[in-house]
Amino acid sequence: MRTTLTLDDDIADALKERARLLDKPFKQVVNEILRRGLSPAPEERRPVIEVKPICSGLRPGIDPLKLNELYGQLETEDFLREQERDRP
Fold first, then answer.
1. Integer Cα distance of 76 and 63 in angstroms
2. Would you say the pTM of this structure is higher than 0.90?
3. How far apart are CA 8 and CA 50, in angstroms?
4. Per-position DSSP letters for the chain, written without gaps between them
5. Which residues contact 29 (CB under 8 A, 6 or more apart)?
6. Distance separating alpha carbons of residues 79 and 88, to the nearest angstrom
């Protein structure tokens, strides 16, 4: 198919240079590059990463059912420390 296409100078120069280096006709180089650009990108193969699970339970003495209570206790202790520090 014959068509008219206006190319930016830098693109035209790069295509001409590639055609010269590859010793191919300008038309062939343009078509190859357009085909490559319009074809779907191949799926990138990601490396397989093996994850080794570890047992990371709570520290002894911490009851998971009482975490809110523990948080409240720690908050109270922090508050009292700040009060002690702010006293003249």
1. 19
2. no
3. 48
4. --------HHHHHHHHHHHHHHT--HHHHHHHHHHHHHSPPPPPPPPP---------PPTT--GGGHHHHHHHHHHHHHHHHHHHH--
5. 15, 18, 19, 22
6. 16
* Token pair of 16 as six digits: 């001409």
The answer to whether residues 70 and 62 touch, using CB atoms and an 8 Å cutoff, is yes
Tokens 């990108």 appear where?
Answer: 41
pLDDT on residue 54: 83
* Mean residue pLDDT across the chain: 90
Handedness of CA 63, 67, 72, 78 (dihedral sign): positive
Q: Which amino acid is at 56?
A: S
What is the Cα–Cα distance from 20 to 12, expressed in whole angstroms? Answer: 12
